[in-house]
Structures are given as C-alpha cells and as structure tokens.
Amino acid sequence: MEMDEQKNTATRGGRANGSGRPLVFGEVLFDVMPDASRVLGGAPFNVAWHLEAFGLRPLMITRLGSDESGDEVLSAMDAWGMDTSGVQRDDGHPTGKVQVELDHGEPTFHILADQAYDHIDADLALRSTAGHAFSLLYHGSLISRGELSRNALEGLRNRPGLPVFVDVNLRDPWWTREDVVKAIRSATWVKLNQSELELLAGSADVAAAEKFRCELRLDTVIVTRGGRGALVVEARGTFETAPPDKVQIVDTVGAGDAFSAVFILGLTRGWPTDVILARALEFAAAMCTVTGATVKEQGIYSRFSNEGWW
C-alpha cells in the first residue's frame, strides 16, 4: 500500500497514462559534427530512440525526404526495433540536417530551413495513431516553425485525455516568445534549460519558474541547470537535485534529450519526483561520455536496466 501511495505522488495533477505508449512528434535530422561525421539527431528522435531502449515502444511521427538520408534513418530505426508506421516520406523536401559546432564541448546548432519535417501531413499523422493508446504526447518547440507540421501537431494535441510534455528548444532564428508561449500553454510538463527560462520569463530563479508555471497554466516546469543539476516546480512544491559526480565529457549534444527520456520513463513508471530527477541527471551525464545524441550499442543502457529502472 505504501508503494502504491508513493507512486501516486510522483507528479501533481499531471500523470502519464500508464496503459499506453509514448507518442513522439517532431523532427528527425542528421547532426553533422565538426569532423564531418554524421550522427542521427533531432530532440524528438533522440527521445524516441532512448524510450525504445527503455522498452516503452514509442510511436514516432515525423517526415523524411525521399532521399538516401531518409533511407538511412529508416534503416537505423528498423535495426533498433522502432515502429516506423508514423514516418512519412516527402518527394519535395530533404531529410533534415544540422551543422553542429563545439566550443569546449558545448554545441552550437545551425539549422536549415524548409526540411521534410516542416511538412508533416496532418491526415497521415492522425491515421497513424488509430487504434493505439498513448501515455503522453512529447514534442519540442522547434517543430512549430512550419505551418503544416504545426497544424498536424494541433490535431494530435486535441486528442482527449492525452497529457502533453513540451521540450523547449530555442534555436535562432526559428523562434519568437509569442510562438513558444502558444506552443507550451496548458501543457502538462514543460522542460527548458536555465538560459531558455531566463529568455522567456526574465529570470532563471525558482520564483520565475513558479510564476511562469502559473501564468501559462502548466502543471509542472522542469529546468535543467548544467553543473547545478535540475529543478522541478509544481503546485505541491519545488524539487532540486545536484548533478552526479563529475564525468569525463566528450560532448553534451543530446544530454537534454537523454534527461527528457528518463523523465518520461519515470512518469510512466510512477517514480517519485526526486527519483526521476536523480535518474534523469545520471543518464544525461552518461550520454555526455559518448559522441552525439544516440548510440547503437545497448551497453550504455544495460547498467541502468540492471539497477531496476525498467
């Protein structure tokens, strides 16, 4: 009984629907690294990749070009065991690409315009969800830059009883405060880093996070703070957790997406908030020890599976 009560207090009003699978919507692209190597990326894809490794069987809705890069994405998804039924193909627009530059391990992203993921078809997206139950809908803020994809997302967000997790990604010049606020208003969970909170709320302290949560009618605001760990602000209180012991950082590309994936895993499994935060930070730190945002070996996940995370 005590265990059940603890699980039921994992979040305030916003809880993942435990009987369903995560629905992930948004961009898939290649991060082109400074050494010209290419790594599959895009925040929604990175999150879906990790969720698959965690055994949650996400449905990823995206759009790829009818090109070799698109074929490569599908091959990678198939090899990883991911459901590709929500993947659309586009004859007129290329599979997404981003140029990544690193400064002391910190990434800078140069995002190209008018990619296939900006043209997700709303009817096809809705059709791919037919017959499925979903625990939550995850999407980032970047996908709202294209009108077609924005309309498709709106159709999914109107699905009754589906809680929404929004991951804020402010990438110049592809955002305005007005558009981001519209994308996240009334979401269940909103995750952003401290710089993004300061840009949107004027400050990055706890009071600003709480004011931001109340003004936008959010259940929960999650703030990642780099070397200071992370915090969660919700109606029943504030939870702060320090990062794990120092790790040997290779790069931080995808660390925030790794954090989001474990947060979703915790919401699905009913972990208490402090456990979610500690484990999300631990997995994000582990991903900083490898190059890029996704890995093709199960080894990095085995340690956490052995610790009973799933």
Structural class, by secondary structure, is alpha/beta
- Rg over CA atoms, rounded to whole Å, is 18 Å
Average pLDDT, rounded to a whole number, is 90
Shape: globular
- Side by side, the strands of the main sheet go 5-4-1-8-9-10-11-12-13
Distance between the termini: 21 Å
Helix-strand sequence: HEEEHEHEEEHEHEHEHHEEEHHH
Proportion in helices? 25-40%
How many distinct beta strands? Answer: 13
Per DSSP, what share of the residues sits in E-state strands of 2 or more residues? 15-25%
Largest sheet: 9 strands, mixed
Assembly level: single chain
Number of helices: 11
Ranges where pLDDT stays below 50 over 5 or more residues in a row are 1-13
Describe this structure in words.
By secondary structure, the protein is α/β, with parallel strands linked by helices. About 35% of the residues lie in helices and about 20% in strands. It has eleven helices and 13 strands. The protein has helices spanning about 1-10, 45-55, 70-80, 120-130, 145-155, 175-185, 195-200, 205-215, 255-270, 275-285, 300-305; strands at about 20-25, 30, 40, 60-65, 85-90, 95-105, 105-110, 135-140, 165, 190-195, 220-225, 230-235, 235-240. The strands form two sheets. Strands 5-4-1-8-9-10-11-12-13 form a nine-stranded mixed β-sheet, with helices on both faces. A four-stranded mixed β-sheet has the order 3-2-6-7. A hairpin with a 2-residue loop joins strand 12 (about 230-235) and strand 13. The longest helix has 15 residues, at about 255-270. The chain is globular and about 50 Å long. The two termini are about 20 Å apart. The relative contact order is 0.16. The model is unreliable at about 1-15 (pLDDT under 50).
